[in-house]
Structure to design on (253 residues):
């Protein structure tokens, strides 16, 4: 995905990129403080093209890196990093029906403790 | 020959209780699961933006419980619910009035995740109430 990685939304004009978005986050309290924090992130490849091949390859690469992967979070230790859902859909622009957007990736659960 | 005798009283009652336990647990769990699903659906409907109203109208709750299970499903049957939740790049006029890319909706998923976690705690309480020990966390 040559146009980069963005949080929530890509700048106008970008056509091949990765989106990362925090969908849900919850803390698990315990008597002495916070036991762990768990975030559910959407990580998806987005490309403007009729074929889903590139988006699919990028999603596979994302999964290879993230599923049970390593992650450095300052001040935290990683407990678990795993995909909980696949995400795959194609958008047709209603204003210009010749334009297609391919979205492929997943929802990744990240649990960390301090 | 030994004349020692060990007598257990109440075994018949225990056996009967154990036999009835799955049914009783399921019955109590069904109430919790159904209430959770209904509350989640209501919260989702309240949180959706209103443009055409299709997103709100598409929220449905299905009770799929059976004899020994407690299952309820919250779903949105609106055709653009999935892409609303996961973000759009195209300029869908029936989703966004600004006709630009939209970030993920962050409505359905976070509400369901939060409600489900609360439900796990309530279900664990039901199991404890019946004298069983619950360890770990599903949430």
């Amino acid at each position: 995905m040559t146009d980069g990685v963005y949080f929530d939304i890509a700048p106008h004009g970008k056509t091949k990129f990765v989106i990362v978005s925090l969908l849900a986050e919850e803390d698990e309290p315990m008597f002495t403080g916070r036991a762990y924090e768990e975030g559910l992130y959407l990580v998806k490849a987005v490309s403007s093209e009729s074929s889903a091949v590139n988006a699919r390859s990028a999603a596979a690469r994302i999964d290879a890196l993230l599923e049970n992967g390593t992650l450095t979070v300052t001040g935290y230790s990683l407990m678990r990093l795993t995909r909980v859902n696949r995400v795959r859909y194609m958008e047709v622009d209603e204003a210009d029906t010749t334009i297609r957007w391919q979205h492929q990736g997943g929802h990744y659960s990240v649990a960390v403790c301090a | 020959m030994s004349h020692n005798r060990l007598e257990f009283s109440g075994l018949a009652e225990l056996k009967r209780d154990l036999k009835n336990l799955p049914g009783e647990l399921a019955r109590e769990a069904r109430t919790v699961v159904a209430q959770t699903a209904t509350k989640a659906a209501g919260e989702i409907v309240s949180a959706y933006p209103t443009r055409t109203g299709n997103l709100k109208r598409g929220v449905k709750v299905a009770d799929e419980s059976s004899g020994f299970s407690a299952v309820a499903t919250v779903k949105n049957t609106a055709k653009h619910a999935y892409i609303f939740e996961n973000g759009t790049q195209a300029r869908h006029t029936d989703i966004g009035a600004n006709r630009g890319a939209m970030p993920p909706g962050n409505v359905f998923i976070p509400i369901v995740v939060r409600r489900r976690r609360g439900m796990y705690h309530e279900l664990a309480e039901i199991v404890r109430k019946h004298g069983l020990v619950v360890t770990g966390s599903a949430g």
